[in-house]
Amino acid sequence: MLEEVESFRRFIKSKGLKYTPEREEIFKEVLSCSGHFDVEDIYLSLKNKGHKISKASVYRTIPLLIEGGYIQEVYRQSGRSYYEVTLKKKPHLHFICIKCNQVEELVENKLEELLQKEMKKISFSPLTYHLEIFGVCSRCRYKE
Q1: Is residue 57 within 8 Å of residue 22, measured between CB atoms?
Q2: Residues annotated in a binding site for Zn(2+)
Q3: Binding residues for Fe cation
Q4: Alpha-carbon distance 43 to 61, whole Å?
Q5: Cα(144)–Cα(141) distance, rounded to whole angstroms?
Q6: Which residues are documented as binding site?
Q7: Contact (CB, 8 A) for 53 and 46
Q8: Per UniProt, where does Zn(2+) bind (predicted)?
Q9: What domains can you pick out in the chain, each with its CATH number?
Q10: Against a cut of 0.90, is the pTM above it?
């Protein structure tokens, strides 16, 4: 994690911003997330660990993490944005249930190969990408 923290420090300074202990704590907390998260998740986790960080600080740091390529917005539901760490993560699909908000991920090598082939054809260099498929999960269909 030291390498990632140093990368974040350089990124913040390259933007002409101050590198603060609060930003570092938020960054470390975000990197520790294994699944999808929102601002509230990060804020509450830090608060429960005894850190004195405001929710506003988390809100201000998230766009920097997106711009730096550390995280990406995955989807929005009920007025909330959900994110995931993109470092060392392969592109993948998200199946999102519109009824219960359950999210399943699928890493599909054949799809990845197809996308890479098509991007190469047009000399396109992606920064990051993800695919979302919205529908109804089997549990919600069963309930109907």
Answers
A1: yes
A2: 97, 100, 137, 140
A3: 112
A4: 11
A5: 5
A6: 97, 100, 112, 137, 140
A7: yes
A8: 97, 100, 137, 140
A9: 1-88 (1.10.10.10), 90-144 (3.30.1490.190)
A10: no
